[in-house]
Automatic annotation (TrEMBL):
Keywords: Antibiotic, Antimicrobial, Defensin, Disulfide bond, Secreted, Signal. It comes from the Eukaryota. Its main location: secreted. It comes from Myodes glareolus. It is found in: Secreted. This is Beta-defensin. Residues 1-22 form the signal peptide.
Length: 71
């Protein structure tokens, strides 16, 4: 009987937990993460929909745009 009560209490507590953390929200085609601050080995790419930073590891950065010469 005590196990059933414990199980019910556990479900009630889990029901009050928010569905997700901003730490796990993804951006930049799933390669980046939306965070308040970027880590040392990451760079800021753009803002996420919730106004947090889209942090992208240096290994996944897109190549720089090639400059075209208009001669």
């Amino acid at each position: 009987m005590a196990q059933w009560i414990l199980l019910i209490v556990a479900f009630l507590v889990l029901g009050h937990v928010p569905p997700g953390s901003s730490e796990f929200k993804r951006c930049w085609n799933g390669q980046g993460a939306c965070r308040t601050y970027c880590a040392r080995q990451e760079t800021y790419m753009h803002l996420c929909p919730d106004a947090s930073l889209c942090c992208l590891p240096y290994t996944y950065q897109p190549p720089p745009a090639s400059k075209t010469r208009d001669d």
